[in-house]
Structure formats: C-alpha cells, structure tokens
Amino acid sequence: MMGTSQQVGRCKKTTSPTKARASLEAVRRTVCTVVLLAITAVTGAGGNNRVSVTVGKSSVLACPPKSNMTMVTWKISPKAGGPCTLGYRADLNKTDRTNCSDSMNWKSRPDWDPALEIRQVGIAFEGNYTCKVVATEGNFHKMYHLTVIVPPRLTVYCDNHGNPVCKAAAGKPPARVSWVLESNSTPEEEGHDNGTVTVLRKFTAYSTNMTNTTCIVSHPAGTWSKSIACHLSETSTWFLHCVLSLASLLGLFFLLAVLHLYTFCDSRTIRNRYKPRHLPLAELCGPVSNPAPEQR
C-alpha cells in the first residue's frame, strides 16, 4: 500500500498543448510590450505639437537637451519657400545652416540648449519644425506644427443707404463679426493670396430712425468692439439736395436765356425803326410801330 501511494504521488497531470501555447503567447506579448516601451523611451518620440504665434512676435521651440550630445539638427519645412536646416556637430564644435532666414537661429549655444528661436514671425514661417538629437543614450526627436495668427483691422462706417457696416480686414483665421442689436444680415468673406480673410457684415435696420449699434469682432488674437450711429434718412436728404441744386441751376439757365432773348429782341426793335422793310423777328419780338410819313 505504501509503495502504491508513493507511486501515485509521483504521478502528475501533464499540461495540455493548448494551455502551453496560451502561456507562451502571453509571455511573448509581455516581452513585446516591454521592448516597445523601451524603444519609445530611447528614441524620444515626442509626437506633433501645435504652436500658434501672433504675426510679428517671437517664438522659441524647445528641443530636449541630452547629455553627451553628438549632433543636433533642425529641419524646417515652411508652407512658403523651400526647406531649411540648422545643424550642430559636437565632434567638430561646428554649426551650419542651409537656406534658413536670418530670423531663425539657435536660442543660445546648441551644445547647451538646442532650442530654436524665431524672431518677428511672418505668415511665410508656417509649417513643420522637427528637432533631432543624437546622443549616447539614443536618438531623440520632437516635431512642431507652427501656425501664424494675424489680428484683423476693424473699421465701422455707414454705407450709401445709411446702414452700419462692420469690416474685419485681413485676419487669420477669419474673424467672427456680430452686432449687439439683432440683424438679419449674413457675413461676407473675401480671401486673399497670403491666407488672410476679410469679413464684412452689414447691419440692416428695421426702422427709418437713427440707428446706434455696436459691432463686436472675436478672434484668437483678441476681441474688439466699436459703436456707430447712422442716419438712415441722409440718403434721401442727399438726393433731395441734388435735385434742388439741379433745379436751381436749370432755372438760372432759363432766366439767362430769357434775358438774352429780351436783349436780342430789344436791339432788333431799335434797328428795325430805321429798316422797316426787314423784320425777320417781327412775329417773335412783336409789332414795331413805324413813324408816319410826312405830309406834304
């Protein structure tokens, strides 16, 4: 009995092939996950960061500084113009630049801080900026997508019909224009070659009285407002003034013509007293009394 018990204790259930494969698959997935995390940490995958800058301002794009850097490269692909490159090699202690504007340069010494500084940002600077760092710990990179914001120019005026008009000129992105008082008008947009957009919105009044209203312009660069008062009857007044001026001018011409005709007829009458046989304007100027012949 004891021998039989020992033999039974020594016997174990064998693992099925299906369970073994499942265990190996779980181990494989764990190892792959660890490897991917390690690769991500070493290569420094930074993703794509979006940066917005107001036109005319300066911007600094950071690049992760690493100890024992051997090379740093900024690759810039703007929307306008060709690509440019800023590079630094630690073994030669040398920097170089290719097709880059003077507004783009290292913020400081690239061996200390490889950040890129852009001075007086313009619309042409929009695009992708990628920093690559080669160090003893591995390769690192960071990418930026730069967007330039252009504030619109706000003007408010009265059109020929006396309606207030609000104009947000050359903004990027397009500005949002609205009136404090309700209006059934819709904004009109006009695009420009440099990517800016002009938005115009007219206020349509519901009465013929004076309209005093405020225009509000909303934009990522800020918010502005401006008020205006337009007389809706000024167009009629202007038209009436023009009509009265034209009537006065025509009346003056008529009086001058009558005066000229009267002077002409009077001079003909005087001459016809001595030349009674020639009366071409007798009907126009009236009968002329001739002196009676002398009786002999």
Describe the structure.
There is one protein chain. The chain is of the alpha+beta class and 296 residues long. The protein has four helices and 16 strands. The strands form four sheets. It has a six-stranded mixed sheet with strand order 1-9-8-3-4-5. A four-stranded antiparallel sheet has the order 10-11-14-13, with no helix packed on it. Strands 2-7-6 form a three-stranded antiparallel sheet, with no helix packed on it. The longest helix has 39 residues, at 234-272. It is elongated, with a radius of gyration of 46 Å. Mean pLDDT is 79; it is low at 1-13 and 31-46.
Any descriptors?
single chain, alpha+beta, 296 residues, 36% strand, disordered N terminus, 27% helix
How does the SSE layout of this entry go?
Blueprint: H1 2-10, H2 17-43, E1 45-54, E2 59-61, E3 69-78, E4 84-89, E5 94-98, E6 104-106, E7 116-118, E8 127-135, E9 138-149, E10 153-158, E11 164-171, E12 176-179, E13 188-191, E14 197-202, E15 211-219, E16 222-230, H3 234-272, H4 282-285
Parallel strand pairs: 1-9
Antiparallel strand pairs: 2-7, 3-4, 3-8, 4-5, 6-7, 8-9, 10-11, 11-14, 12-15, 13-14, 15-16
Q: Nutshell version of this structure?
A:
The chain has helices at 2-10, 17-43, 234-272, 282-285; strands at residues 45-54, 59-61, 69-78, 84-89, 94-98, 104-106, 116-118, 127-135, 138-149, 153-158, 164-171, 176-179, 188-191, 197-202, 211-219, 222-230. The chain has 296 residues and is an alpha+beta fold.
